[in-house]
Design a protein that fits this description.
CATH class of the largest domain: Alpha Beta
Radius of gyration: 20 Å
Order of helices and strands: EEEHHHHHEHEHEHEEEHEEHEEEH
CATH architecture of the largest domain: 3-Layer(aba) Sandwich
Strand content: 15-25%
Bound molecules: 5-S-methyl-1-O-phosphono-5-thio-D-ribulose
Largest sheet: 7 strands, mixed
Shape: globular
CATH topology of the largest domain: Rossmann fold
């Protein structure tokens, strides 16, 4: 799946506007810092790794926009842009990870070169490197994840952890793409993923394009397909994984993990190490984004609930580590006990599988 949701071309930032999918696959340019922030807030670009990559390039957009006169002013632009972008969406830690990396690179390069032009070019190189590293991570996650998908399996996924959500290939869907490429036949059940339908609009679209056998279900059908014996494993992406393996992902993921547990079905998470927040001991500390009630009452412009009704609309939930059978990373598949597996992975760079 060679779909790239974020593209840096001739010093300009382009994204596929995912709010238009699946009716239209249109690339739009993000010409200013505020347009980058708006695109992230409005989910024109979404998915934890893609948000991080887009924000990294957003820093370059801000530099182009502000045109600082010297490196000291340039460093101020980088910090101000990163501060602003960090207020876009709170849960996906990749956003903060990518912006921290851009801030650190800006400082390090400032000590290595006297030329403003050279400094800016090095920062551009850093953003491109971050993007390319994400692509490699996704390929490796695909290779490891594919080993979990037996021939003839029924797989259930939620939201979109595909090419659209990363620099390329995806995380959970990368595993499906690799299994498909290696000739395995399997069927994927895709939750619609209310309220914004990332499963229906994005995952079903991606998988159909790749020629994978895909069946769309309403979110509330998941228990029934499990009970009917159609699902052999569940695999989703992640927005933030705490040091003990507790995992934040799209609202509804926790419910799926509970259902999978009740039916004796393994529940897997796939994510790069840039999605881990090892400073958080457990998932209760993960900030959960609250989204506007209109996303629930006015799905895609039409009133679907009484005007004025109270709405609770958290965008993410946290799945406790004890419900997760394995976490697929670029360094292999982490298995419980996660605290130890994650610590080893970060400290020793050991291959955990
Ligand atoms: O609100 P979204 O669409 O950004 O939520 C995305 C998800 O929950 C994905 O599963 C997650 O970011 C992983 S993307 C590889």
């Amino acid at each position: 799946m060679h779909l790239t949701p974020v593209t840096w071309r001739d010093g300009q930032l382009f994204i596929i506007d995912q709010t238009l999918l699946p009716s239209e696959c249109r690339e739009i340019r993000l010409p200013s810092l505020e347009s980058v922030r708006e695109a992230i807030c409005a989910l024109r670009v979404r998915g934890a790794p893609a948000i991080g990559v887009c924000a990294a390039f957003g820093v370059l957009v801000a530099l182009e926009e502000m045109r600082p006169a010297d490196m000291a002013a340039g460093l101020q632009v980088v910090d101000a842009a990163a501060d602003r972008l960090e207020t876009s969406r709170p849960t996906a830690v990749n956003l903060f990870w990518a912006l921290r990396r851009m801030r650190q690179a800006a400082r390090a390069f400032a000590g290595q070169t006297g030329s403003l032009r050279d400094w800016r070019d090095r920062l551009e190189h850093e953003a491109c490197a971050l993007r390319d590293e994400d692509t490699v991570c996704c390929q490796k996650i695909g290779d490891y994840g594919a080993t979990l998908i037996p021939d003839g399996a029924g797989v259930l996924t939620h939201c979109n952890a595909g090419a659209l959500a990363t620099s390329a290939y995806g995380t959970a869907l990368a595993a499906l793409y690799r299994a498909h490429e290696s000739g395995r036949a399997f069927r994927v059940y895709v939750d619609e993923t209310r309220p914004l339908l990332q499963g229906a609009r994005l995952t079903a679209w991606e998988l159909l394009q790749a020629g994978i056998d895909v069946t769309l279900i309403c979110d509330n059908t998941a228990a029934q397909v499990m009970r009917e014996g159609r699902v052999h494993l569940v695999i989703t992406g992640a927005d933030r994984i705490a040091a003990n393996g507790d995992t934040a992902n799209k609202i509804g993921t926790y419910g799926l993990a509970v259902l999978a547990h009740a039916h004796g079905i393994p529940f897997y998470v796939a994510a790069p190490l840039s999605t881990f927040d090892v400073d958080l001991p457990h998932g209760d500390r993960i900030p959960i984004e609250q989204r506007p009630g209109e996303e629930v009452t006015r799905a895609f412009g039409r009133l679907t609930a009484p005007e004025g009704v109270a709405v609770y609309n958290p965008a993410f939930d946290v799945t406790p580590a004890r419900l997760i059978a394995g976490i697929v990373t670029e360094r292999g598949i982490l298995k419980p006990p996660y605290e130890e597996a994650i610590r080893n992975c970060f400290e020793n760079h050991a291959e955990p599988t």
